[in-house]
Amino acid sequence: MEYTPNTADDRRQMLERIGVGAFDELLNGIPASIPRAKFSVVPPGCTEPELVRDIQALAAKNQTAAHRSFLGAGAYEHWVPSVVRYLTSRGEFLTAYTPYQAEASQGTLQAMYEFQTLICELTGMDVANASLYDGATSTAEAALLALRHTQRSRIVVAATLHPEYRQVLQTYLKQAGVRIVEAPHADGVTSVVEAERAIDDQTAAVVVPMPNVFGCLEPAEALAARARAVGALSVVVVNPLALGVLKPPGAYGVDIVVGEGQPLGLSLQYGGPYLGLFACRGEHLRRVPGRLVGMTNDARGRRGFTLTLQTREQHIRRSKATSNICTNEGLCALAATVYLCALGRQGFRELAEQNIAKAHYAQQQLTAIPGVTPLFPKAPFFNEFALQLPCQAATLNERLLARGFLGGLDLRRVDPALDRGWLVCVTETKSKAEIDALAAAVREAL
Amino acid sequence: MKPTADLGTGYKLVPGTGPHRASEPLIFERSVSGRRGFSLPPLDVPMPPAGVTAWIPAERLRAAPAALPEVSERELVQHFMKLAHQNFSVETNFYPLGSCTMKYNPRIHEELTALPGFSTAHPYEPDAAVQGTLQLLGELGQWLGDILGMDGVTLQPAAGAHGEFTGLLMARAYHEAQGRSRKKVVVPDSSHGTNPASAALCGYEVVEVRSNARGRVDLAALHRAVDQDTAVFMLTNPNTLGLFEEEILEISRLVHGVGGLMYLDGANMNALLGLFRPGDMGFDITHVNIHKTFSIPHGSGGPGGGPVGVKRHLVPFLPGPLLKKEGQAYRWVEAPPSSIGRVRAFAGNIGAMVRAYLYIKTLGAEGLRHVAEHAILNANYLKARLKTAYTVPVDEPCMHEFVASAVEQKRLGVKALDIAKRLLDYGCYAPTIYFPLIVEEALMIEPSETESRQALDQFADALLAIAQEAKTNPGQVQMAPHTLPVERLDEVRAAREPNLRWRPSPDGARPQGALQGPGP
Amino acid sequence: MANRDALRFTKTHEWFDPTAGAVGITEHAQEEISDVVFVELPNVGTVVRAGQEAAVVESVKAAFSIYAPVAGTITAVNERLRREPALVNTAPHGDGWIFTLKAQDPAAAAALMTQVQYQAWIVTEKDSGGVHAEHS
User: Fold this and answer.
1) Looking at CA atoms only, how far is residue C43 from chain B in angstroms?
2) Cβ contact, residue pair A316, C38, below 8 Å
3) What is the enclosing helix (H) or strand (E) of B298?
4) What is the tens place of the pLDDT at every residue in A209-228?
5) B361 contacts in chain A (CB < 8 Å)
């Protein structure tokens, strides 16, 4: 199957108009010393029915759909309302590109303006951009902004930040000679005393997750205050869903809020595409990475929307741009916009509350099992919690998989010392019966 | 200025798309307290009388729910459908945006990518449970390596610019492993803005070399620019003028001669597909914008994907983890310490990779070559039709795109921007304008292989009509567009008084069009 | 602002008032740049070399570097430009001044062009492309 409409007759007429006899004459300027492509493993091509048959078979090799999942750790299963998929599959959004011609892209531009507004509202910040790649790269961009703003060279990062986010920070910052200092945790949350020791007048940013990789709520307010005291910027890495109930970071003086927007209406897709959120205080506006959409008017005074403050960006500022980003995650931002509007003011809060209630119910049921205890009993948590198991988490997960459950994260992935640590995530998608069934399966498996 | 009903080019104004069409209020302005667009199942686990404060201290909670809009599902759908109708897109319009390869995106891809096996897989599932996805990623990596002529491929980068960053970090790690840190990245003056921006992000100093009169890399200038301090020469081939860099083998020899690496910005890979391979031209590293060449819908600005292919000597530096095939099974293994590390969380934009896999599998080797051939033919055909009215600075056979210039029209007071805006009235999206920077009043036109001869003719007719209008009625062009929901927007105001978010007016009234700054 | 005859000019289209130390962009430059939407001001106390980028003037689609005409220390910046960048367009030689500079060498300004020399120079420069945006 090919998607090229022109027939042999069309091509002949076109070549005639161009004034060449055969297609290859158009390539005459290319020296013969460059070999023509030869493929060894590219497949031969197929029709739609053949494709569907093969791909359904391939998708069926994934056992995913058959399992009830209690796995989170940075990627979360939530119910995605049908309208989110419908509206994001509309060709007018799906097959447009970056809205360079504003007059022919008002739909995308207005939706992005609405997205920016929603993210500002959730985070309590003045400005939000039209998205970045994912939560990890947004975190790195926040660190870069802080390094430029402060002209300093050290970043203090909570050790409870998702390990892959910490790895991405390393990748982004090491060649700039930036030192990344990890602030250790005690009982599942960053120790403010230890962090204070790490934060000094050379610190550009203090990066704190909320909730953290163990699901626990961090003393982000105290850490942000400490950052402010030494002239560093505070960066809070959020799960935006938790902001349905948690105090917005803007309310406690945070400079930059970043996060992974996947919980807002995006399916898991084995890790992406997801949605990098980036919001900050107004004073940092000129250093924001990525696209920004602004409201303005046309000559008749009609309201309209346009990409704005583009002199920050690579296509104008080139090597002096605030970031190298060009294409972001526009369609994912649209999905999040539709999702948040579908849930609405009450619905979004209820959703966050249901996540908390179900996670706490599950924690209660699981810790009633002999030998299973909370790993960090003191810290409040959102929709995931860490448990200490009587056996290795990997062993338990294997047994659960055989029973149709995708168990929690083996915490050795976060910290090899957490030998029997197990991170369980419970969202609104799990019924009481499913949670009870998990508890029964765990009891049996142990 | 009244819109003409028939533009004489086969395009007719569709009733309801004229300037009388009312703009859609913001979703916040449609909000009515108490409405809902989605209902959660009732909570079936206990909620204490104190609510969530039983678990989370009240001082950590928000005082009031976030002020999200309250709309019914019907209103929600209507709102976004009205917005959809204000967009031009590949599915609805000719979309010749140069350098962006706005080809048709097969619908079957959307359906298959949404199969639950793919779409609901969690990134931390055990490898044994996601063999379907892993096999797909493994084979896609192999295929891309074959297509690019590269020995190793990472699928992790989320976009082209992200791929550039990844590729340059690998180059950096390679040079450091050789014990010779280098300082410079050299780019042509016709390069994409992401090239210097990515190089700067990797800590490199950027040196630009001039293009020659034929729009190609000036070999003598390059000779002067590269030395023992040159880490990488970044090049787009075909370049941003749509021209093949015929001296590419000499260029590679020159750069390799001083110990530098050759980086291909794969933005224009659509022109090479099945015809030539970057690896056979001396490139050591290349990213490919899969949303361009491999037909991932552009999504109003992403998500895309930027896989990077490298030659054998750079394989040790690929980001991790790495996908390995053992027998019939795939599994992730940790990358060696020489790896540059991770560039994002999880395995990449997998949804985009699934579509790229479907595309390659459907077209096959021969179909891929036809893509490049038809893309090249379409571009040359358009160029032949347009050069009677527009200047083509380098009038040689082009590859998949070409750059025309509106210098003639500018003498009449009609700029490239005006022509772009007038095209919108004719139902065509605009070419990329004012890029590359080395062409005055540039119109960068990339029709892609999926447009028919008739569609190309209609677009050419529109551009020719506009060239005529520039002579007879320049005001019509200078004031365009006339048929869209808004006329040209006040971008100066947008930049001077940035209004980047909506705020309710203090008295609760709906501030139609009220402009407010973001606040300090 | 001082008498125009006392002003000195650079090839990068800054004017410099050797008496007051004020720096701005020329009438010619503001016309080429068109609507200024933002001015990035330096920090007071910054030491700059002659020809070093000291400020940035932005239009909607381009950014223009403003270079220090002579070596010295930034002594003041025009705070009004933060709210009213358009002053660079409406009064480039007056209220649209950008910063003041205490020259390291008070005689350094003598090396710059006079008003007459500058006017002659922009005519010749026009043929070679006019004011260059840093990137446009």
Assistant:
1) 19
2) no
3) none
4) 999 999 999 999 999 999 99
5) 43, 45-46, 51, 54
CB contact under 8 A, A409 and B197: no
Q: How far apart are CA B439 and CA B436, in angstroms?
A: 6
Class of domain A83-337: alpha beta
* Interface with chain C: mutation pick from B191, B194, B492, highest number of C CBs within 10 Å: B492
Average pLDDT of every residue of chain A: 96
Burial category of A169 from C-beta neighbours within 10 Å (exposed 0-12, middle 13-18, buried 19 and up): buried
Give the domain-ending residue among B326, B346, B362: B362
Q: B135 in a domain, yes or no?
A: yes
Same domain, B353 and B262: yes
Give CA B363 to chain center in angstroms.
Answer: 22
Average pLDDT over residues B306-331: 97
Chain C residues with CB within 8 Å of chain B CB: 35, 37-38, 58, 60-61, 85-86, 135-136
State the best of C37, C39, C58, C59 to mutate against chain A, taking most chain A CBs within 10 Å: C58
- Delimiting residues of CATH 3.40.640.10 domain(s) in chain A: 83-337
Last residue of a domain, one of B333, B362, B391: B362
| ipTM score assigned to the predicted complex | 0.97
Give percent of chain A above pLDDT 70. 100
At C61, is the pLDDT very low, low, confident or very high (cuts 50, 70, 90)? confident
Give C89-128 pLDDT, tens digit per residue: 999 999 999 999 999 998 999 999 999 999 999 888 765 5
Query: Best mutation site among B434, B491, B496, B497 for testing chain C: the one with the most C CBs within 10 Å?
Result: B496
CA end-to-end distance (rounded Å), chain B: 40
Q: Count Cα neighbours of A209 within 13 Å in the Cβ-side half-sphere.
A: 31
Is the pLDDT confidence value at B511 over 50? no
What's the confidence (pLDDT) of residue B509?
47
pTM listed for this prediction: 0.95
CB within 8 Å of chain A, chain C residues 25-84: 38, 40, 58-63
pLDDT above 70 covers a percentage of chain B that reads 93
- In order, the DSSP letters of A203-228 are EEEEEEEES-TTSBPP-HHHHHHHHH
Q: How far apart are CA A412 and CA B272, in angstroms?
A: 45
Whether the pLDDT of residue B9 is over 50: the answer is: no
CB spacing of A5 vs B371 below 8 angstroms: no
CATH number at residue B252: 3.40.640.10
- Check if the beta carbon of residue B266 is closer than 8 Å to that of residue B284: no
Looking at the structure of chain C, the number of domains it has is: 1
Measured distance CA(A287)–CA(C136) in Å, rounded = 19
Amino acid making up residue B29: E
Q: Any CB–CB contact under 8 A between A356 and chain B?
A: yes
Q: How many CB atoms lie within 10 A of CB C83?
A: 10
3-state secondary structure at position A391:
coil
Write out the residue range of the structural domain in which residue B357 sits: 112-362
pLDDT digits (tens, 9 = 90+) for B153-204: 999 999 999 999 999 999 999 999 999 889 999 999 999 999 999 999 999 9
Amino acid making up residue B227: D
Q: Is residue B493 part of a domain?
A: no
User: Inter-axis angle of helices A8-18 and B350-386, to 10 degrees?
Assistant: 50
Task: List the beta bridge partners of residue C66.
Answer: C55
Q: Which fold has domain A65-79+344-445?
A: Aspartate Aminotransferase, domain 1 (3.90.1150)
Write out chain C residues lying below 8 Å of A316, CB-based: 61-63, 135-136
